[in-house]
Structure formats: structure tokens, C-alpha cells
Amino acid sequence: MDEYNFLQELSNDLGELFSSGNNCDVIIQAEENDNKKEFYTHSLILCSRSTYFKAALSKNWIHNENGMIIFKKPNISPEIMNHLLKYLYSGIIELDKQKGVNVFKLFIASDELGIKKLSEYILNYIIGKYEIYIKEDPIDILQIIFKYEHFNSLRNNCLEFISENPKIFFESTKFLSIEKSILIKLIQRDDLEIHDEYEIWNYILKWGIERMSSSLTTTENNNNHHNNIDNNNIDINNFSNWNLENFFELKNILHDFLLHIRWFQISSKIFYQQISPFKPIFPDYLYKDIITKNFKYFSLKPRKSIYCNSKIITKFHLPIFSSWIDYKEKNFYNIKTMPYHFELLYRASRDGFSSTNFHNLCDNKGSTIIICKLKDNGTIIGGYNPNSWNCNDNEFLVKSEDSYLFYFNNNIILDDDFDKSFTDDDDEPIIARLANKNYDKYLYNSNYGPTFGTGFDLIIENDIIKCDNITSYPKLLAFINPRQIYFLEDYEVYKVTK
To answer: Which residues form the TLDc domain (predicted)?
Structure first.
């Protein structure tokens, strides 16, 4: 027997019934702030599609006017109610066209209204998209996630994501509206990737000042609504007219934050110049410990942030370098698992391109990695030296079997999932290892900067990089032409420690 699926036609017809409101017997009144709307609906549809409406419409407390059931839902906005009712009638909902906050609100409302299949679908959708939504609106999304128990499993993931990308949170125009408990959870984290602890203090101070009864914003705040205050409008240096009551008020606001700031990571100079004027807000014992550097009983550890202050690479290059050091050609480290730390020793654009400057700043420092950016095309090349550099008037060779050279296409944007960062073989980075581990590796000459290979396979001389002969690293030929001179835009040297 021939069959034809008329579900699409049924969906269209029921959708039209909702749009027209013909023969309705239920008026749903949705409201959010001053935004109100009435929806003309049908009890048969509502009861068959929602366990909430099935139960509610059978209760005696529903209000009837002229044969119509009046149903008030003041906690669901007209926009969200409209989407849900369209779904109840047509079975269609388009989440990809919604802002992240609205997707969360759709889940909350669908769960409340007992639309089980839809709420399950939306929750799974959110789990796959939460990073996108956090980038879009970090403050409102976090407030929702911490308000509703349904999102317990997402809370740590979201805090972890923000810890890795703190600027989207702290520089949000809505930052000052974040709830205290959430802000504390964030600054408690050891992995919060803000390199300067003084910067964290500034954010907390602005948040606290905004909550004072006489807020120190540079623009007048008539309605005292935190969402309308720009982070940059809080002047943390304008306290010349404060009295003790002002300081005590701020002390009460920030009391629970002070023990979660790594004061030992703020220099004495910065503390005296910028923070000591706020001495009245500190407990006496804490202030004394800070100025005397007595952190014996201070339980906090330095933040384990993966801070990369390079002008050439991003932090996502670092796990790749670490993996190559440990001969991991597959199953690369990521930001959290890499065992190495990278400390900037030298930047040519800052410290000068001369070989003398390089040796003054980089000799006898242990393992280092050299990162160069070519001037003409932005290509990134460099090399890893597991030994110390050493300035010497005479050339001499040092064995270095674990050294390697590398190449990156600078047009590629890396993320923490290294294996999925490349869509084309031409995009993949190249590593050139020693062809024979018994080869010596030419390293030291006071007239040159970093030098790799017995044939001067890769050599930096002031602001040029070149290859004289390829003898030690044969795969170098894949990204360097022998005897061709390349001009450097910049190069950096990092000390590598485990």
C-alpha cells in the first residue's frame, strides 16, 4: 500500500492554527518587566503536549472570563513563550537562530512547563555550544548556570573556560553585575590566566566600589543598575574625599575576597604606590603579613596560568613544543598537561638584534627555544636547544641529540585541540630532527646568535637568518632554501624548564 508522510503538512496547519487563534479557549498572559503579551491557544493542544498544562488546566484555581480560561505566566517572557507555543503546535524550534541567553531561557521554561523531550534536546544542545555562548555573553550565562541546578555539570567547565580566557569575563560591559559568589569562585582558581595579580585586584576593587552607597563612577548613575555601568568608568584613584566610613563600607564589601588574592605575586613597589592607600580595608594581620612578606601561613599557591607574552606565537604553540621535546608525535600535550614552563629571556625588537645582546641575555641559562618571525611573509621558524648557549671566541661543537628545528604557517590559528587545527597538509607544522644522533651540533661563536647544525644549517646573524648548508637536519629543506638570506621581523628566546 502506498504511503505518504503528511507530518509536514500537519505541522504547518497546526502552526497556522496557533497564529490565527481561531476557536481558542485559553488566553496565556506572558510578562517580563513592562513587556506583556496575550497568546490565544487551545486547551486540547496544551494538555496533550505539556504535563504542566495538563495538570494546571484541570485545577480549580484557573480563572475564567466569558468562557475563556485566563492563564498567567509572569515568569516567562513573551518572546520565550512564543517560541515554546510554536513548538507545542508545530513541533519546530530553531535554536541556531537564538542568542545564547535565550537558549538557556528556553530550556528553563520548557523544563518548567513539562515539555520533556524538548528540554532534554535543548540541554544537550547547550552542552555542545556553551563555549560559544560564554564568549557571547559571559556574565548573563554564568548567572543563569549558577542559579539553576540543571546546569551543575556545566559550572566547572564554564569557569575553566573563563579561566583560560579571562578577558571576555573581566572586560565585559556587564562585569560589574556579576554576583559575588561567582566572582569569588573564579578568583579562587589556581588556573586563572591573568599574569599580573595587581590586575585582578583592580577588577575586584572596581566591582566593590560600584557597590558602595556613593559609587565612584565617572558618569552619573541615576538608576544604580550595575548593567549600565562600564568597567572603565570606575575611577579607583579618586578617593581623596573618602572618610573612614567609606573605607569601612568597602571593607565589608570586599572582606571575603582579600584572602583569595595572591599578594605575594604583587611587587612591593606596586603595593605601596597603588594598594596601600586602601590600608583601612585590610585586616591588620593581613596587611602586616603583606608588607613584611611573611607568607609562611599563607595557604595560596602561585597561579598556574599558562601565560604567553610572545609577540610571535600564542600559548597554544607551547604544548606542541613540549610534545616535540618529549618525542610525542601523536597524542600531543594540551595546555593543562604540558610539563614545561617557558620564560622569556630575550626579544630582539626590545633588546636589540646584535649577537652580543643575545649572548648577554641567553648564555648559561639551560635549555632554550628560539622563535623567529620572517619579515616578508610572517612564517614562524626556530629551534630547540636542550643545552646552554655559551659565548666563546673560538668555534666549538656540542653534541645535542634532542635538538630540533621547526616551521609554522603563520596563517593558521591554533587551539588546544592540536590534531584538529589543520585542514590541509600544507598547513601542518614541520619538525626537523637530527638525521644522525651522533652528529655534532655547532652552537657557539661570539660573532653569531643562535646556530644549529655542523654545516650552519640554521644561523642567526643580527637581523637575518639563513642556511649555509644542510648537514644535520635534512628535513630543514622543506621550509628553508640553502644560501638564501631571510630578514627577521623579530625573534625571541625562551628558557625551558620542567
So the answer is: 311-497
Residue 488's φ and ψ, nearest 5 degrees, are: -95, 135
Question: H/E element holding 192?
Answer: none
Chunked into runs of 10 residues, the chain (498 residues) has average pLDDT values of 70 84 90 89 92 83 73 92 94 92 96 95 94 94 94 92 91 95 95 89 95 61 50 72 92 96 90 94 92 78 74 89 91 85 91 92 94 93 92 67 90 62 64 78 73 88 92 91 93 93
Residues 403, 384 contacting (CB under 8 angstroms): yes
The model's pTM is 0.66
Domains parsed from the chain with CATH numbers: 7-138 (3.30.710.10), 173-291 (no CATH), 315-497 (no CATH)
For the beta carbon of residue 269, count every other beta carbon within 10 angstroms: 8
Report whether 471 contacts 460 (CB < 8 A): no
Cell of 5: 508522510
DSSP class of 132: H
Q: Which runs of consecutive H residues, i.e. helices, occur in 341-439?
A: 348-351, 355-362
